[in-house]
Amino acid sequence: xNISVVIPLLNEEDxxxxxxxxxxxxxxxxxxxxxxxxIDDGSTDKSWNVISKLSETNANVKGxx
Length: 65
Hints:
Low-confidence stretches: none
Largest sheet: 3 strands, parallel
Mean pLDDT: 97
Structural class: alpha/beta
Helix content: 40-55%
Strand order of the largest sheet: 1-2-3
Order of helices and strands: EHEHE
Number of helices: 2
Distance between the termini: 27 Å
């Protein structure tokens, strides 16, 4: 099964890592193939930095700004 999780966000730096970890846990426990697309809609906090770090450590994560 292929799943795309699309997450639009604005100023969510504090919750992104927890959300990512939860999604990855669910996907791996069910053996799903997946991608996570974080769509940064003009955040003024450090959301983009968090997305960049997550995408460096997890090839299933992509960010769009």
